[in-house]
Design brief:
single chain; 378 residues; TIM Barrel; nine-stranded mixed β-sheet; 20 strands; elongated; binds pyridoxal-5'-phosphate
Amino acid sequence: MARPLIADIDLDALRHNYCLARDLALNSQSLAVIKADAYGHGAIACARALADLAPAFGVACIEEAIALRQGGIEAPIVLLEGFFEAEELSSIDTLGLWTTVHSEWQLDALLTYSPRRPIATWLKVDSGMHRLGFSPQQAEQAWARLMAAPERVTDVHLMSHFATADALNSSYFRRQVAVLDTLAARLGAPTCLANSPATLAWPEAHGAWNRPGVMLYGSDPLEGANDASRRLAPVMTLRSEIIAVRELAEGEPVGYAGRWRAPRDSRIGVVACGYGDGYDRHARDGTPVLVDGIRAPLAGKVSMDMMTVDITDLPEADIGSSVVLWGSGPRGGRLPVDEVARYCDTISYTLLTGVLPRVPRRYHGGPVGTKSPDTPNH
Ligand SMILES: *Cc1c(COP(=O)(O)O)cnc(C)c1O
């Protein structure tokens, strides 16, 4: 039998989460952010599954957009960081992509390029993230230059990104909204601000467009869940099986460096999943997995191809028992990727995007009549 590790991707859950984002913001259009291979879920499969729902998609670079066009995705695709060199403008033009401009050099390049059709352009404003974008003062001039070039650019929006939208009572967040609102009012400009946490928790930040990302995959980006985020459904279930069982006497160590020592006579299940699959090696002892639907703690360092869990309290567990590393378990049980991330001192984004190509993706659900791309290795 093949190695049992699989990433099951529930496209119905993806559609459910997208509809939640959309319905929380009925006066906004919701762009589905599918950069980084749809946060590890497979960009083409996810875009096809959302094709009848999402009016546009967001990616980080032109290579990701080209792959989507080659996969048959025809909707507008926004380059969230714009182009990295001016040569990309001809592909942006021919592929009908939308661009962002965050820097003076990009603006110059855009305004000297003669496209076949004007290019939809989002002007990125630095409202407080201090990473990309024009300062509010610079943005006024940039806006005027864009407005003066209707043969080159169209559908110009102001765009900005939040630093602290996940903290539910952040005054810094309010300041960022105020900066952009003031500018937008002065220029009469439509806006695009909200990421997942702002989509879920900050209606005042909803603009002409929203940009939900991680919530589409069922991860809750808020510091504390709210009514909306509790309705998110996990999309990826990373599942494997126990491939060997060890009986250990009290005091015996497990795995590299013997980090975990049996505090009592113990049974250890060896699971086919390791950091060579993208499971985080920083996972602490005690990180939960679901064994036949019941929580069991990680015991010992994660190795490249395997990990070890303490199944002493699960006498039924044995070789072949199902193991869920995160996602949906049997009988409606769940192990949220956000919870696993906390045990790894990281965030769900790194766990999801970190699942490596060695792990076959297996797709379920999706709109009737669409076909998901063939799963590699299967
Ligand atoms: C990735 C990204 C998003 C989506 O953020 P989430 O926190 O995943 O919702 C939105 N906007 C920009 C500019 C991004 O780069």
